[in-house]
Amino acid sequence: MSAELAELRLPTGWQWRRLGDQDAPALQQFFDANPEYFLRVGDEGPTADEAVQELASLPPPELRYREHWSLGFEQQGRMQALAVLDAGLQHDEVWHIGLFIVATSLHGQGVAAQLYQSLEDWAAAEGARWMRLGVVAGYEQAERFWRGRGFVEVRQRHAITMGKRLNSVRVMIKPLGEQGIEQYLSLVPRDRPE
């Protein structure tokens, strides 16, 4: 099954586009204008080639996936959010959010929740039964946001290098429908609690 990005329906006034190498300057500008994520997880702002690195990054070779997207979300022609998604990560019905950043100026306005809901609805329509992500332990704003969307922690991974820091990352899952966490863990042994 191939996801059709045309089915991604966003809130009024928002547009999306799939990002490629040619979008590195616009993405870098977005990162530079919104360094909060990088400061919180890595104790330093985005590097000068952060966008180039992000656009070139893929899941580790040992993790199979079906499709990988970097999506830029724009409002009035200006990039205001980024989502990096992997469909079929580790199992055909698992969609993974590798990165989700919304412009700092839009925090607290419900924009992130609306954009995320658009992504979840699209994933579910394309056959996703679970959403998955990793959130840095101790990044309280992000942890609160994802818990508020219905994600639950299934395990932690430790000593993950991000910028100048080693972090612990909470692996979080959200079932989309009647399938539960136990069924997910039976299909994705890598995420079983240690």
UniProtKB/TrEMBL annotation:
- Name of the protein in its database record: GNAT family N-acetyltransferase
Q: Which residues form the N-acetyltransferase domain?
A: 17-177
So which residues are the signal peptide here? none
Which InterPro entries does the entry mention? Acyl_CoA_acyltransferase (IPR016181), GNAT_dom (IPR000182)
